[in-house]
Write a structure and sequence with these properties.
The complex is a heterodimer of chains A (1388) and B (366). With 1388 residues, chain A is α+β, with helices and mostly antiparallel strands. Chain A is built from 50 helices and 33 strands. Chain B has a four-stranded antiparallel β-sheet with strand order 3-12-5-10. Chain B has a four-stranded antiparallel β-sheet with strand order 4-11-8-9, with no helix packed on it. A two-stranded antiparallel sheet of chain B has the order 1-2. In chain B, helix 1 runs antiparallel to helix 9. The longest helix of chain B is centred in the last third of the chain and has 38 residues. At the A-B interface, helix 12, helix 14, helix 15, helix 43 and helix 44 of A face strand 1, helix 1, helix 3, helix 6 and strand 10 of B.
Chain lengths: 1388, 366
């Protein structure tokens, strides 16, 4: 546990730390990118390799020569060292232009001819800013140092040559070439090659949650053909040399070979490598040799720097700051020229000081003096203030209850802290579909086997019921919640702390982390928290067929399936069960905690009984895996099945029927048993005595007889058995888990997995060991995965493939064998295609299952080349791909599956709100076109009267022509509309009467459309469409699309996604949002904000985005106003002091005025102001458009603000001037009422500008005013000889005791604020303020909404009765679907 | 800063999940407080014609009387000003202004006759006024040594700020700096020309013209201030001065650095045209006005050169009120602003009438 803590911490700090980068790491050095583009880097051949020898082995000399240059395992992630902190930190800080500017000013003040203030005073602002940031950096770095120390001093057992034993050593002392022994749940100290595992099969499991947040286990394998397995490894005699590539940051790749003394080379790959900071699981002891240590480990090399994004507003801000600079220069030049002229006209003054300087030179001096005097015009505190304000905004976003997910117990994670206001300006939203719009909780829904569809009506109905009771269930089931919440927690701790830049770091406190960590183990109990995914109600028809053989009662019933069909069905389920990479675990294993207390544990007695009943030898290979619950079962069913298959109506080519009757080598395990015993209860349920079985059998037989209640009872049985079994499937993708669970519902249960075999329960057969020959894992190029197994019943080598329909359909064999067979196959294919199409239309995810039986020779031939490919170092990936492609040909299509992925709650409402807010929503999905369109309908992205434009082109030229054609059509369509085309563009189609265009484009066409020549057409077309759906798009395309829109249209883009395939898109967009969902943490890790539901977007954007933007924009404007207003007072004074650069204020007050007296109110304003209440913003999304088009912070607003500031400063200066002119007023006495009025004006101006005033505002305003008066009064009492040139002694006390002071302040303040007050009043009366309007609109809207909802509900009910749609709960059934479909076809 | 509050966010602390080790884990649910959910009760100052209108009227109603009051007060102040620079040849001081030298031993005197139309009732303040004199010039303002003026002769080392008036003939200047160096050194005397033809010297009080804090806190003579000549040993007088600082006055309480004329001069004026208090003519008894109406003569010992930079010198006699000297500007400003407010109030009333009602009706109809 303890170890977990610090590793988590360390990871966090590592992620946060950026050892090399400074404050502003250049945006292009995001290491994440290189990680992403792993595919590209694959081709990069590293010239150098590293050789590793055992430190205490026979190769001492070589070890010494080679390993010298390798880094030790000590890590240092701190930026600074104790001694070098101050210079280093200053160096870092002066990378900032603003700091440099103020350093320049401070230095300038040291030039005697130019000096404006006391030398110390100009340093104050700079020192304050530098000190604040230095302290923050120091604290951060100290924390990092502590973590480093903790990590470095962590203990691992390292082999020591002298003592010939494993001794405890600190991590930092581990060297390359050391042998390290690790036990279960220990953390790997460095990248090691796995040489020994206590597991007899030489595997070990690691968990990479610390690296990538994925909690499923990954299997690692001992370097093949090390002969020592089973006995303790002897490091001192390790003779081999390891050659591997130089350290790199590719987590998924490791290449090298091990050379034995005999000269034999053994290929090493990723599955031999134990990565630093991963955790050993499920394995008692492992021994490895360190190959990379310390900073050279893959984990460390993957440290990504902090995200630094510059917000749009900040860019605007910088131009305005430039304008301020221009303004400053103009003012200084005016002063310089003025002073020169004044001096020229001056003849021998008695007050002259340096009369000998020429006017030109004096003017030059004055220019620089004025730069110092008017320095406040460039708001130094603005940058710091913005950072603080954003921190405050983040704090409130983070604390928003509406963005909290009760079920997962997760809040929003704000990872990029400096782009909050960009949330308020989004114009384009790119969304992934799966997991973003939908739950990504895959539930098996329907399937088709042998061309026959099984609609699973009951299952669909149950899903609906579940839907209804979901909320209740969520509250009830503590298990579910705990598992999930703990998971999300762990995710958060991983991801939240990567930003260490400047002020923003929200360093999460360690206690919280500790708590999170303590729940790590629990987090792993369920990879997918959905109970739904586990519960599938079998289709009665399919159950009947599946059990047809074993149940004589059914023999007579109608619809006797052909034996071939039965073979198909069996194979189909076998494929579902084994063709995956699911890791099975059960509660008996140490790392799993039984999540539910009510789980009845089997008594010892029962287990004993079971063993007595079935004298079946335990499955030895898997004994470590699952409790001995194996039972014998009859082989009769299968043998009969396959015999029948052989003697069936015709022989289906090289199919499974060839040798079916032969029991195979497993024959000896065959326990004779009565055929009639139907092993219907959940397999492996040890507690069931024969009597129980009989009961269940009867039940089930009854059920099978089309009794409508049957399946429901079965659900109960099923779910009970689920709980009893407590088999947990950890899959890399939810699809896989759903399929395995589905198969399980049909009694085809995956019980265990080892590298060589799979333990499978089959109905009527019992446990079978399926010899696993190869897994050809899924990749996005092939879009499929395969397993090569030796069929347990036939003994044949069989390839089971599962993949996207488009791919499998092409690979499925077409013409071979007899004409009859051909016809038969094409029939199945046609039927399946039909079913696939209908699944897709319903929004289901489709997969095809196929198989291929191999002849031995064929397999041998393939195997040879495959092994060659596996052991090659260069181009291994390509070779493996080729190899896989060679195998996956001529497949026999078994069937197809449809998996439902329900929409998340409130998705349609959210999308509607976003569209009304003027955000164009694009959906970029890898799914099929039909699925995408259906989902789009369901989430109201498409409306019934929208016109669908579908672009599926076969070639680039066709694409070009087609785009032009569509453009014309859209133009005509839009011109023809009576509504202004702007209506469509602005998405103001809330009325629903405007028919707008929706572009649907598929991956290939998109590829062409993204090319240089067609870009423009595509852009033009898409910008005229209300929404765009990109189907079948690759991750690269997604980011390309985002880049195109962002760069070409110059709009603010937001990308939201949940999976690794969305990472590039998320990083490309201005704002990237990750949905912490089912698919690991990669999207979250690369995102700026991570939310848990899609619906949170609406509040995040419409409310927080709007607020953040308007707050920040207003605050920045206010800052400019404040500075211009105050600085101009000093400027006007130059006109009466001969442009000599003197000021009428004490320089302390002058400097502190901005730094203290008026600094806090803008912050409060920037954090707390609400220009409109949240309900209004949510209710009237159209309000979002104001911020979107930057209406608040636009150039003319800047200039209006500056003009107003000019006016106010004129008033504030010249009223006191005229009131006091000709009197005996001294410099400071003259400045006193001016300063006080300026303070009043500035504070009251803010009151006028604020939209809300709370007690906090009141308090802060009072404190600000109070601090000014307190300071000046105290100063004027106590400062006798301090502050030499302008001694304030007695000035303010005297001034404030005179009524004139207050008279001047009153009239000045009021006159200065009069125009703005008047303008506001008149404007809001004539135009009615947006708030008034919106509250009015809101009433109307809510009325409309209610009506709309009623209508929708009505239609929903009506449609729900249609059986087709009933299968698709959560998706709004589209009654107009067929119409649009034809539309689309017409368009094509 | 804000980050620190993250640690305190789980205060509600209801336990929802119990970890395997029995460690209690608090929910991460944000606290449902008005502050954190940004639902603090807030006043929304939406300015509309309707809401601003009363404010405008009220301000108009307040400002106009104040303005009238100020105007009247200002008008009641008696003020007499006479320019004695001697620019015109006809001017009595023309000759003095022409041949000027800082070091002339022969003082040039001139007398200017004038008459007061009205008698001055209360204490009359006598000012000298200078124009086009930039006492607020940055370098000029800095050119002083407050520490020296406070009585710390600072081992005879004046501050660097005093340059180039810090040392003269290798002796530190006391008081150093350009301000002190350019001290106004005309002597003004006022005579009442009795209708009988006799000139009566009007007694002028030279104390009480400086700020109390200046005289008692900020300025101070070195040592105990009894033997100034000895204390100022080793220093030299400012270049332009005719006599050293310890000979400014015979009264030891008004001599040296705490000479009030000096203190007044050292408080640099804010604007290039300014006046400085010179003397006070106190009212002797309540029955007789301080200054009767009639003819007076101003006797000037003309020392201070202003013509070189086209400056002017004036003598001002003025009474003061609670709001200071005579200045009609504030009164006018108040009246103007008040009237403008009133006018705007009316305009707003019209606007409100035109638009405000429509709003209301629209709201009601919904």
């Amino acid at each position: 546990m303890e170890q977990l803590h610090w590793v988590r911490h360390r990871c966090r700090t590592l992620l946060a730390g950026n050892p090399e980068g400074g404050w502003h790491s250049a945006p292009d050095d995001l290491p994440n990118k290189s990680f992403l583009n792993a595919h590209c880097s694959l081709h990069r051949v590293r010239g150098k390799r590293r050789s590793v020898f055992a430190r205490h082995g026979p190769h001492r000399q070589e070890y010494d020569t080679f390993s010298k240059s390798y880094k030790g395992n000590a890590i240092r992630t701190t930026k600074y060292r104790l001694l070098t902190f101050i210079p280093m930190n200053l160096f870092q800080q002066f990378h900032r232009a603003a700091n440099l500017y103020f350093l320049f000013l401070a230095l300038l003040n040291w030039v005697p001819a130019v000096e404006a203030f006391q030398k110390e005073i100009t340093m104050i602002p700079l020192l304050v800013v530098l000190a604040v940031i230095a302290i923050k950096d120091a604290l951060e770095d100290y924390r990092r140092y502590l973590f480093d120390r903790k990590v470095n001093n962590n203990v691992a057992r390292v082999f020591c040559g002298k003592q010939k034993a494993y001794n405890d050593q600190c991590w930092k002392d581990v060297r390359v070439g050391d042998f390290v022994r690790l036990s279960c749940n220990e953390i790997i100290p460095a990248d090691m090659l796995l040489l020994y595992s206590s597991d007899p099969r030489g595997v070990c499991y690691i968990e990479t949650a610390n690296l990538d947040g994925e909690t499923n286990l990954k299997q690692r394998q001992v370097v093949s053909d090390l002969p020592l397995q089973g006995e303790e490894f002897t490091p001192e005699s390790f003779p081999s040399r390891i050659e591997c590539e130089n350290p790199n940051n590719d987590l998924s790749r490791f290449r090298g070979y091990m050379e034995h003394p005999s000269g034999v080379r053994v290929g090493l790959h990723n599955s031999n490598l134990l990565l630093r900071s991963c955790t050993i699981r499920n394995t008692e002891t492992v021994v490895g040799i360190v190959v990379y240590a310390g900073h050279e480990t893959k984990a460390m090399m993957n440290n990504s720097g902090p995200r630094y994004k510059r917000s749009q507003l900040e860019k605007r801000l910088n131009t305005d700051i430039l304008w301020c600079v221009v303004l400053l220069i103009i003012m200084c030049l005016t002063s310089a020229v003025g002073h020169g002229l004044w001096l020229k006209n001056l003849k021998d003054p008695v007050f002259g000081v340096n009369t000998d300087t020429s006017p030109a030179l004096a003017g030059f001096y004055v220019f620089w003096t004025m730069i110092i005097v008017l320095q406040v015009l460039i708001p130094i505190s603005l940058y710091v203030s913005i950072e603080i304000v954003k921190l405050g905004q983040i704090y409130f976003i983070h604390n928003d209850l509406d963005l909290y997910n009760e079920q997962l117990d997760s809040r929003i994670q704000c990872r990029a802290l400096n782009i909050t206001e960009d949330l308020g300006q989004i114009q384009y939203l790119f969304s992934d579909k799966t997991g973003t719009l939908t739950e990504n909780k895959m539930v098996f829904c329907r399937c088709s086997i042998y061309g026959v569809e099984y609609p699973h009506v009951e299952n669909a109905r149950r899903l609906e019921v579940y839907e209804a009771e979901k909320n209740k269930a969520a509250d009830h089931s503590v298990t579910l919640r705990s598992g999930c919440s703990a998971k999300s927690r762990s995710c958060r701790s991983l991801s939240c702390n990567r930003s260490s830049v400047s002020l923003h770091t929200l360093t999460a406190d360690s206690e919280e982390e500790d708590e999170q960590l303590s729940n790590q183990i629990q987090a792993r109990t369920s990879a997918f928290c959905s109970r739904m995914a586990k519960e599938v109600v079998p289709d009665p028809e399919l159950v009947r067929k599946l059990n047809w053989f074993s149940s004589p009662l059914n023999e007579a019933s109608s619809g006797t399936p052909s034996s071939l069909e039965l073979a198909y069905i069996t194979d189909f389920f076998l494929a579902l069960t084994i063709c995956n990479s699911v890791v099975v675990s059960s509660p008996s294993q140490p790392r799993h905690v039984v999540p539910e207390a009510r789980t009845p544990l089997k008594s010892l007695e029962e287990i004993k009984l079971m063993f007595q009943r079935f004298s079946f030898p335990p499955f030895s290979a898997l004994s470590t895996f699952s409790p001995p619950q194996i039972r014998g079962s009859p082989r009769n069913f299968t043998s009969r099945l396959f015999t029948r298959g052989k003697t069936g109506s015709f022989s289906p080519t090289a199919n499974n029927a060839t040798d079916g009757s032969e029991p195979g080598r497993d024959n000896d395990m065959d326990t004779p048993k009565l055929r009639c015993i139907l092993d219907f209860s959940a397999p492996g349920e040890g507690g069931n005595a024969a009597q129980v079985e009989d009961d269940i059998k009867k039940d089930d037989i009854k059920d099978a007889k089309t009794s409508p209640d049957g399946p429901r009872q079965e659900v109960e049985v099923d779910s009970d058995s689920d709980v009893d079994d407590e088999l947990l499937y950890e899959a890399e993708s939810p699809d896989e888990a759903a399929l395995v669970h589905a198969a399980r519902a049909y009694r085809c249960t995956l019980r265990g997995r080892s590298p060589e075999s799979l333990l499978v329960d089959l109905p009527g057969i019992g446990s079978l060991a399926v010899q696993l020959l190869h897994i050809l894992p899924f990749d996005s190029n092939r879009k499929r995965m395969s397993v090569v197994v030796r069929h347990p019943l036939t003994g044949q080598v069989v390839v089971y493939t599962k993949g996207a329909d488009s791919v499998i359909m092409d690979l499925a064999e077409t013409s071979k064998g007899a004409e009859q067979a051909q016809e038969f196959h094409s029939h199945i294919k046609d039927q399946s295609q039909k079913h696939l199409d209908s699944y897709a239309r319903e929004g289901l995810r489709t997969l095809c299952i196929a198989k291929k039986a191999l002849e031995e020779e064929e397999y041998e031939a393939w195997l040879k080349r495959h092994l060659l490919a596996e052991s090659s170092i260069e181009n291994r990936e390509e070779l493996l791909l080729d190899s896989a492609q060679r195998l996956e040909t001529n497949l026999t299509l078994l069937g197809t599956t449809g998996i439902v992925d329900r929409l998340q709650e409130d998705v349609p409402e959210t999308i509607e709100a976003l569209q009304r807010a003027g955000i164009k929503v694009w959906v970029l999905t890898g799914d099929k076109q039909e699925t995408a369109i259906n989902i789009a309908y369901a989430c109201k992205l498409l409306r019934p009267n929208d016109r669908l434009l579908t672009a599926n082109c076969g070639s680039k030229d066709a694409c070009a022509a087609f785009l032009k054609e569509l453009k014309l059509e859209v133009q005509c369509g839009q011109d023809g509309l009576t509504e202004a085309p702007a209506a469509g563009a602005h998405g103001e189609s809330s009325s629903g009467s405007v028919s707008s265009f929706i572009l649907v484009i598929d991956g290939q066409t998109l590829d062409w459309a993204l090319q240089e020549e067609l870009k423009r057409d595509f852009l033009e077309l898409s910008s005229r469409c209300k929404a765009v759906l990109c189907c079948r798009s690759t991750p690269l395309q997604k980011s390309e699309v985002v880049r195109l829109i962002r760069d070409q249209l110059g709009v603010m883009t937001l990308a939201v996604g949940d999976g690794a395939n969305d990472v590039s898109m998320i990083q490309m967009a201005d704002v990237g949002i990750g949905i912490s969902g089912q698919e690991g943490m990669q999207a979250v890790m690369s995102s700026d904000f991570a939310i848990s539901r899609f619906k949170h977007l609406s509040k995040l954007l419409l409310v927080h985005g709007h607020w953040c933007y308007s707050r920040l924009a207003n605050m920045i404007l206010y800052f400019f106003y404040k500075n211009v207003m105050y600085v101009n007072l000093l400027f006007w004074y130059q006109f009466v002091c001969g442009f000599s650069g003197s000021v009428m204020t004490n320089s302390w007050v002058l400097i502190l005025f901005n730094l203290i007296f008026t600094s806090v109110p803008p912050l409060i304003y920037g954090i707390l102001d609400q220009d409109m209440p949240a309900e209004t913003l949510k209710g009237v999304p159209e309000l979002y458009q104001a911020a979107q088009t930057s209406k608040i912070y636009v150039p003319h607003m800047f200039w209006i603000t500056v003009l107003d500031a000019f006016y106010q400063s004129l008033v504030c200066f010249f009223i006191p001037y005229f009131a006091l002119t000709g009197s005996d007023v001294g410099i400071l006495s003259f400045g006193s009422p001016i300063n006080a009025s300026a303070l009043f004006i500035i504070l009251l101006h803010q009151v006028l500008e604020s939209h809300t005033l709370t007690w906090i505002h009141g308090l802060v305003l009072l404190l600000s005013g109070g601090s000014y008066f307190g300071f000046v009064l105290l100063f004027s009492v106590s400062c006798v000889t301090c502050s030499p040139p302008t001694n304030p002694l007695g000035v303010e006390t005297l001034q404030m005791s005179q009524p004139l002071f207050y008279i001047i302040c009153a009239v000045t303040t009021f006159t200065a604020l009069l125009p703005r007050m008047l303008f506001r009043a008149v404007y809001s009366t004539v135009h009615r303020t947006a708030a008034l309007k919106s509250s009015h609109v809101e009433k109307v809207e809510s009325e409309n909404y209610r009506k709309r909802m009623q209508r929708w509900n009505l239609s929903h009910h009506r449609v729900n009765r249609l059986p087709v749609c009933a299968n698709n709960p959560g998706l709004e059934p589209s009654t107009l679907h067929t119409q649009t479909h034809t539309d689309r076809q017409r368009a094509v | 800063m804000m980050a620190s509050s993250y640690s305190a966010k789980d205060e509600d602390g209801h336990i929802t999940v119990t970890g395997p080790g029995g460690a209690a884990l608090r929910s991460k649910k944000p606290e449902n407080t008005a502050f954190k959910q940004q639902r603090l009760p807030a006043w929304q100052p939406i300015l509309t014609a309707g809401t601003v209108l009363p404010a405008f009227f009220i301000i108009g109603l307040i400002f106009i009387p104040i303005g009238i009051g100020l105007f009247v007060t200002s008008n009641n102040i008696r003020e007499f000003e006479i320019d004695y620079t001697g620019v015109d040849e006809s001017s009595p001081c023309f000759n003095c202004s022409q041949n000027f030298s800082w070091n002339s031993t022969q003082p040039c005197t001139c007398s200017i006759p004038f008459s007061l139309e009205q008698s001055y009732e209360n204490n009359v303040f006598m000012y000298y006024g200078l124009s086009n004199f930039y006492q607020n010039h940055r370098r000029y303002v800095k050119s002083r040594d407050d520490s020296q003026l406070n009585g710390h002769l600072g081992s005879l080392k004046p501050s660097k700020e005093c340059e180039p008036y810090a040392k003269h003939e290798n002796k530190p200047i006391a008081p150093c700096g350009a301000i002190a160096n350019s001290m106004f050194n005309d002597t003004l005397e006022l005579f009442y020309n009795d209708p009988n033809g006799t000139k009566i010297l009007i007694p002028l009080r030279a104390t009480g013209i400086a700020w109390w804090t200046d005289k008692h806190v900020k300025f101070g003579n070195p040592g105990d201030g009894l033997n100034l000549t000895a204390e100022f040993q080793g220093t030299t007088k400012p270049v332009n001065w005719r006599k050293p600082v310890y000979e400014l006055d015979s009264d030891p309480l008004n001599n040296g650095f705490i000479n009030e004329d000096f203190i007044v001069w050292m408080r640099t004026a804010a604007l290039p045209t300014f006046r400085k208090l010179y003397r006070i003519i106190s009212r002797k008894d309540n029955m007789v006005p301080t200054l009767l109406r009639g003819n007076y003569t101003l006797e000037v010992v003309y020392n201070y050169p202003v013509r070189s930079f086209e400056g002017r010198k004036r003598m001002i006699l003025s009474t003061i009120s609670w709001m200071g000297g005579k200045n009609p500007f504030l009164g006018i400003a108040y009246i103007t602003v008040g009237s403008v407010c009133f006018f705007l109030g009316v305009v707003l009333l019209l606007i409100h009438h035109k638009y405000g009602n429509r709003n209301n009706s629209a709201d009601i109809s919904n």
